[in-house]
Amino acid sequence: MRVISPQELLRRALADPESPAGAMRVTEFLTSIPAIGEGKRDRILNELGISPVKKLGGLGARQRRAMQGFLDERWPEPGPRGERSRLVVLAGPTAVGKGTVAAEIKAQHPEIHLSVSATTRPPRPGEADGEHYFFVDDAEFDRLVADDELLEHATVHNRYRYGTPRRPIDEALEAGETVLLEIDLQGARQVRAAEPSATLVFLLPPSWDELVHRLVGRGTEGAEERARRLRTAKVELASQNEFDYRVVNEDVASAAREVVELVKAPAR
Ligand SMILES: Nc1ncnc2c1ncn2[C@@H]1O[C@H](COP(=O)(O)OP(=O)(O)OP(=O)(O)O)[C@@H](O)[C@H]1O
Ligand SMILES: Nc1nc2c(ncn2[C@@H]2O[C@H](COP(=O)(O)O)[C@@H](O)[C@H]2O)c(=O)[nH]1
């Protein structure tokens, strides 16, 4: 007999609320999962904000997302080639080294799909369109938003707009690939809301002074922009507890290895 995964049962329930899966109470559904007893079941329903009298086929949109996210996080399904699919967000304050660590991950692990964002920021010397960013004007960014082509988007440092093109992410996840997004705090929060199963990693500097040193040393921003970015950095650092994991970027190769280990680790 083929054992049906919890995700498959949920899919069947949502596809046909009149089916036996759809008519199942959420309580019955959760206790049908071997690791879940009655005490744990009630805690989970409470955390997910789902009433115990709900039927699986009668979950509202928010409840579906919450249940799906919960299942994906604890029992990730293998992709078509047997791999685990993961959406990973790498965030952290300006100049902590997110871009540098992401580039190292890409170099060492070409199997990890690194998202290329769209931005209204002008390119820095050496940045290539389509490689570092898709550099677009305000009108094109408006269009991307209006056409729902972005998974998340935000105005970062109160200045330029940045967003994650949705389609390449969906395609990579469907192919069973791990996808890495290097984005800001606002974007990380949006991804968490849209995809509760995403893994959120916060990159920390060894110290505040080192962060300032890296920002100045990069030499890509003038004094006013640096001050603006450091103001955001304080807000971002204060949010670090919202993230699933924190990694200190003392050394690029070690930080990249640590992030990859988290990504490849079995889901919590
Ligand atoms: N572990 C490290 N040790 C020393 N320097 C580092 C380290 N990681 C990154 N750097 C340097 O710090 C500077 C900032 O790095 P990077 O541009 O990757 O930061 P970022 O977090 O992507 O910044 P932003 O959010 O502003 O785009 C760069 O000059 C980079 O070479
Ligand atoms: N919310 C998003 N933030 C993004 C995205 N791509 C990059 N970023 C973040 O913007 C700042 C500034 O980047 P910079 O290249 O101008 O230094 C940095 O924190 C990036 O992580 C995105 O698609 N969405």
UniProtKB/TrEMBL annotation:
CDD domains: GMPK. It is found in: Cytoplasm. Gene3D superfamilies: 1.10.8.50, Guanylate Kinase phosphate binding domain, P-loop containing nucleotide triphosphate hydrolases. It catalyses: GMP + ATP = GDP + ADP. Coiled coil: none annotated. Its main location: cytoplasm. Keywords: ATP-binding, Cytoplasm, Kinase, Nucleotide-binding, Transferase. Its EC number is 2.7.4.8. Residues 85-264 form the Guanylate kinase-like domain. This is Guanylate kinase.
